[in-house]
Amino acid sequence: MTIYFYGSKDKQYGCFSNFSRYGFELDGLWWVTNEHYFQSQKFITIDPDWAKLIRIAKTPREAAKKGRNRSHPLRKDWEEVKDKIMFKGVLRKFETHTVIRQVLLDTGDLEIVENSPYDYYWGCGSDGTGKNKLGKILMEVRQIFQIQNKNI
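Structure (tokenized):
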């Protein structure tokens, strides 16, 4: 069995979405969603003012739109660091919120797939051939918590 999620409004697994409103503190700042954190990191080293506007965006959709705006140049190392940044934000979100950590742990060893019809990198894409990087990060974070629970 595979767990598919897409969007924060999904009753059972919406908390897996970067748009879900489970805020966290990271790098000395408060992030309303992981989408805010991730999109802001694209610019944090080269345009801190733009990064701040993303961080304080009213909605994750607005943060995403600003983060995808190519009139602002991306940090030069973005392609090399984006997976690590996503991992860092996802881990912190689930460290911060025990309720959603339990939802993640309750998935056991099932495969988790972001069922995005548009995203072939973070999701599976419309035809299922995407890389599902977000799903893989969620499974990696889940494994960290599983190991921690065994050591308690």
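The domain at 2-150 is CATH 1.10.357.40 (Tetracycline Repressor; domain 2). Strands lie at 2-5, 24-26, 29-31, 111-114.
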